[in-house]
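Sample A.
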Amino acid sequence: MVDSIKKIKLNLPNKTYNEINDECLRLNFMRNGGVPNRSGYISALVSSFWPYLRDGEVSQKVDRIFKPRDVAGNAVYVEPTKEAIDSFQSVYSFYKDKAYGAAIRELMEKFFTLQSDERERIIFSNIYDDIETAIKKKKELIIRTYDRYKDKMFQYYFDPFQICQTGDRIFNYVLGKMYSDNDGNLVTMRLSKIVGVSFAKDQFSFTKEEVGRFEEMIRVGVWFSEYGTYEMKAEFTKEGMIKLHLAYKSRPLILKEEGNVVSFRTNDFAAMIYFTQFGDMMTILEPKELRERILDFHRKAVAKEGAL
């Protein structure tokens, strides 16, 4: 009987186990000391994805499906709560005579067929839903973030504008106005970096200028803030033009193409990530400061290689 289950041992296939490890790193799902919190991730996956998958059949989400217990190797122990057993009871027939652990493995296999940004929205569904509610009702939020490198929690007042996905379907970004020392700055923040939200008392509104700046952030790329963007122009070889249109991941916004001369809206961070891959397939025409920065990057790489 399902009611008699006290603990489940999941022996995961290598592929699934590695995917969970990667997801923990990607979404900051870590224990103290930087250890991937595999069992905690599985708990969040099951509690959020099962209702998502069986929409209409599981009416109530549970906050914690499992009490996680990690073990070495590819085995992960998870202990169901009473709420979990009650929840599983209503959908157990869907899996007929399958073992409990096998049912959860099947659930995880289906989960990993989804795009990365969709998985992020499901794992952080409670936070995602609260932010969407705040956007619709114009309610200010108190958000909490955790910096695992500093091992420190931060808390801010935050007015959310929009949740955006990137073209590469990897992450979700929350655009909004963040208050620190009473100064409001327009920022973008990865959904998975927010560890908790609560509703504040105040409501908010954005000025026409702020809405315009948010729209510019979306055009430029939501993974960058609105600060420090500028127009740049580069000339590409024939091979460079082909690569430009194939390498769309993290590509700065294209403003204009005139033959093999292309203008972009970018900033220093975006430019160094994207354009250093082109080598002699491109020449930066302007700004000169960016051209020197990228040339210096290649000079240092060559000097380091020569020293080996």
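Sample B.
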Amino acid sequence: MKELEICKPSKCKQLGLNFWVLFNKKNHRCNNRKATYQELRKALDNWTINEIIEPECKVYIYPDKDKEILLEKALLTRESKENKKVICVLGQDWDNNYLTTGICLWNKIIFYDSKEEQYYLRSFASQNIRTADNKLLDNSKVAGWYIDLSTLGAPSQFWEYLKDNLKEEPKVAPLSVKKEEYKFWHHVHSIQTREQFIECLKHNLTDEEIIDLWASR
């Protein structure tokens, strides 16, 4: 189990910004895209809410009725909504459009994947470049939306919501899922062509494994 911590980057301390990042405690440079319940709960419990600085723009916690639509915007083209449940989405209303459109320019999301028993944390936006460093973002399943898979940083309101609402450890995925994984590896020796191998991977790799494969090209 990796140890995580919620803290401000030194630059944000110097600039006096309300911006907190879920870091890998042993190595802040290590990309941290997901966490188990125990890892996340421990980091939240150890985080002291003492922020007095207001966010740089207005922020909103989206209502439950919007979560399903927002989830699709936060998924990569190769990912599926299956087995996923949104815990929280916080919008950063940089262009002051939320009150008229119901959605913000930049958004922070955490969702749970019951098959992998992991919480995923990421940002998604309606612009394809991150302004701070001109990083090009990945395409979303929804046209016109883009995803930032960097270690998640967010205003304190996001972490406060999780600290108060992430109460119970999620249930373990059904045993049938584990059997399917066994079935895949048990019969992999029967693959004889490249096309069969690719087709088998498409239907059996987890979302995280697909992302890692794509990133290692």
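B remarks: The two ends are 28 Å apart (CA to CA). The helical segments are 10-15, 37-46, 67-73, 98-101, 156-165, 175-186, 194-204, 207-215.
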